[in-house]
Each structure stands twice: as structure tokens, then as C-alpha cells.
Amino acid sequence: MGQSGDPDETAVRSAEARNNAYEKFFGPVERVFEEKSGRIPRTEVRAYRRRGPDGVRTYTLVTSGMSDLEMRVPARVRAPRRVELIFYCSDAEPEYVETIRWLAHFPHAQKTWIGTGHTIPNGNPPAPFWGSSILDTMLLMPTIVQKDGTLPKELVLVGNGVEFLWVVPLTSAECQLKLAKGLDAILDLFQQNRHPFVFDPSRKS
């Protein structure tokens, strides 16, 4: 998709390109949670019903609009400047939608960037998300769903391939492990404990 002199036209064309790419990945959208706050970039959360690797039908929630703006990635850092967020869950709960939308606005509101391995706590000290007693931090990482990881080949906006960052809730202890020993340590822990790709609100630390 090329550059346009009209920001509104560019946003419309970007949304069309995203939605066309998403339909290829996920099929018809089941529900669209529109942005009502007036924040920029305007970010929808789109809910798709699909069958997972285990045959169970789940929801995939994806943001649409976060990638309208480039993030402020430092010149020395090799990381995507345009991303969207993806989250796998059993139901499209409103609290999931609002948290994912908050995360999508975070780098633009803070004039910063987010990428693989970054963690974002829910306040200081972090408070649990979604009624959990222990899940209080979000980890961002590449999706483990192979097809979803090929988004940059399908979606290019203003010269940048767009990538999905998978939103993974963590406990404080898991976050501390990641901060102390790196992303590989938490990935090894997930593998050892068969961490599900579909969010389980009752999972243990």
C-alpha cells in the first residue's frame, strides 16, 4: 500500500487492507468492538470464531488500528514499527477487549514502543487482571500459531510489514523470572508445563 497525502484516506485504506488480510487468516468476523473514546489511532477489536489445533472452537481477538501509526522504535533496534495485538480465548469477554485495546494504545500514548519479550504490569504495584488473584502482567511475544505469524507477508502498510504480538497474562513471579533470566526462561517454563495457547483464567503460577 502506498503513501497518501490525506491522513483520513490513508486510515481508511489501511483498515481495508487489514480487514482483507484478517478475513484470509480468520474467516468472517463475528463481532466488532468499535473504538468510542476518540483516541488516536482509532482501534477496533475484532472477534473471530475459529477451530484451534486441538479441534476446539475458540475466539481470536485482534486489534485493528494500532498499526495506523508507527511506534517510536529506536534506530538501533531491529523491531517492527507497526504491530497489532492478538489474543486467544474461550469467549470474547468485554474485559478482555478493553484490556487489549488499552495495550494497543499504550505505546502511542507513552510515545514509546513495544515488542517481543516486553512486559507491561497492571499498575504499580500490579493489580490482577480479569478477576484473577495472580495474573497481573502482560507479556508480548510472537504468536505460536504458525499461520498467524505470517501476517507481515499479507499486510504491508506504508512500506512496513505488520506483525502480531501475542498477549500472554503472567503472574508477578513469572514476570520476575523473565526479567532475571530472559524470555527463553519463561518459554522453557511454559513448554514444561504445557501452557495452553488459549487463555485459561484459572491457571496456576
Terminal Cα separation, in Å?
43 Å
Q: Segments where pLDDT lies below 50 for 5+ residues?
A: 1-5
**Total discrete domains:** 1
Beta-strand segment tally: 9
Main β-sheet, in a few words? 7 strands, mixed
What order do the strands of the largest sheet run in, or round the barrel if closed? 1-2-3-4-9-6-5
Global Rg: 17 Å
SSE pattern, N- to C-terminal: HEEEEHEEHEEEHH
If you had to describe this structure to a student in words, what would you say it looks like?
The protein has helices at 7-26, 94-109, 151-154, 172-181, 183-192, and strands at 31-33, 44-51, 57-64, 83-89, 119-121, 135-141, 156-157, 160-161, 163-171. 29% of the residues are buried. With 205 residues, it is α+β, with helices and mostly antiparallel strands. Mean pLDDT is 87; it is low at 1-5. The longest helix has 20 residues, at 7-26.
